[in-house]
């Protein structure tokens, strides 16, 4: 019956409105307070597994040595998407680097939208099943940016994505 502090270091919350769900799987748990501490060093690499997913997008490979959070699967079909909140610091011209895998033998069509700018049509080439970086030139606004990746495929073709990185 004694409260104790439990610290979870290095948790990044995307900019914007968030919902927090605490799931208790056994009785006898009590939560008194939550405290969040601001950091002044924002990440430049964002795990895709932590993005908001919609459609048929899922997570696979959780616990792999180089991808402990797993990676996103099934991004490609119309109606599938990933939404990231990223901090571009000063804004301006940047490179959005996606760590992707495409083993489908055909290019996969996606659209990339940064904030309110018009979508950029992408064609993600086959990588032969290898993980590769895909660099996309974008313009970011200072501070928080909304980055949306949407599938444009009519059939089940899709890519996997591990991380998204903002490079100046």
Tell me the layout of helices and strands.
Layout: E1 45-47, E2 52-54, E3 58-60, E4 71-75, E5 81-87, E6 92-101, E7 108-114, E8 120-124, E9 131-140, E10 144-151, E11 159-167
Antiparallel strand pairs: 1-11, 2-5, 3-4, 4-11, 5-10, 6-9, 6-11, 7-8, 7-10
Account of the 3D structure:
There is one protein chain. The chain is mainly β. 0% of the residues lie in helices and 42% in strands. It is built from no helices and eleven strands. Strands 1, 3, 4, 6, 9 and 11 form a six-stranded antiparallel β-sheet that branches. A five-stranded antiparallel β-sheet has the order 2-5-10-7-8, with no helix packed on it. The chain starts with 44 loop residues before the first strand and ends with a strand. 25% of the residues are buried. The model has no long low-confidence stretch (mean pLDDT 86).
What descriptive keywords fit this protein?
168 residues; mainly beta; 6-stranded antiparallel β-sheet
Count of DSSP H/I helices = 0
What's the shape? globular
Low-confidence stretches: none
* Helix/strand order: EEEEEEEEEEE
Please tell me the overall pLDDT.
86
Span from first to last CA?
Answer: 50 Å
Strand content: 35-45%
Total number of beta strands: 11
Portion of residues within helices: under 10%
Largest sheet: 6 strands, antiparallel
Structural class: mainly beta
Rg (CA only)? 18 Å
